[in-house]
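Schema walk-through. Below, the input block comes first and the output block second. Nothing else is stored per chain. Lengths vary across the set, and this one has 396 residues.
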Amino acid sequence: MKGFRDRWLAPPEPDYAAAGDLLRVVCIMMVGWYHIWQQSWLSPALKLGGRWLDFTPGVRAGYMFVDMMLALSGFLCYLPYADGKERPAGEFYLRRALRILPSYWLSLLVMLVFALRDPGFTDAPRLWLDLLAHLGFVQNLWGFSYTATRMNVVLWTLAVEVQFYLLLPVLAPVFKKRPLLTYVAMTAAGLSFMFLWTAPMQDTTLYVNRLPNMLVVYANGMLAAHAYVRLCRAEKRRGWIALTGLALMAAAVWTAWLILTRQARVSGYDALRLGQLKWRWLFSLCASAFLLGGSVTFAPVRAAISNRVIRFLSGISFNFYIWHQWLAVMLKRWRIPAYQAAENPNMAGEMPWQRHYTLLCFAAALALATLVTYLVEKPGARLGRRLYEKLRDGEA
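--- output ---
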């Protein structure tokens, strides 16, 4: 009995959530699959053991996983506060900057070079405004830097993230002191913005993905982190906690799939955005439930969902996210792999190009993400840390 308890019921560490690695990989890959599918139109189904597995709902509604990514961010950013290991605001901002900026700046530089070399480039003032908005992480506020950007179109997510980072050192202590009250206030504010302000608009394009409408997502992540630390420290009923965690994981996956199935049937951009708003709170709650349940469940399950492969993919996922969509568009423009149609081989249903292109997009994005992570992101973070310490020591 003692061996079983040591092996299966070992409590998790409150400063690490095992399910976070798997959730990050799933979210990033599903968003990537959605963007690649937009270019290939390859039916997301495969035959396994004589049966067809159809991933169409998950891929057609893959953009929904961005909300799960942001819920994960809320969970991880608030976790040190819930665990009593929060850092001063300056240290928090420094760590976030060192994590994001090297890869982010590289992406902007590459996008700028390609824009300037484009034979059709004519609007220099707009390009520089676009770049300036991205440098200030406010690109999601204007059409020229959001839907019509010449930079990397997926970077709007980082604008929302950085805006949330600015609030966190003020918001987190309040949440820790009054978790339920703060959760209700954030959720009420987010739902009000979504359904009283954004949804009635004639055109929601520029508003559906702004920070006020994401408050419900971050609130779900933060509440899950608060509950996770409490459950990690619970010494009794570990068996029931682990079993409940496993059931919570299953319920989260099942509910998320039902939501994706319904959203995948929606057509028209306006209806898609309204669907996002409709499901945002519940879909991000599924992410939080999966995070919480998967991180407190039985120890072998936690080990399985946070193995070396998953941790590696999680480690390069940021750069996969940054580069996958742009790379998919460029490979198609460069006719790699070659296709017979004059243009738009996806519309012609050209096979085997659709399959080869899809596989190449994933492989190329993973390879590029690995290179940028280990040649730019990590060295850039180390260099930035050393420069900061030299400046700090010099001032001292």
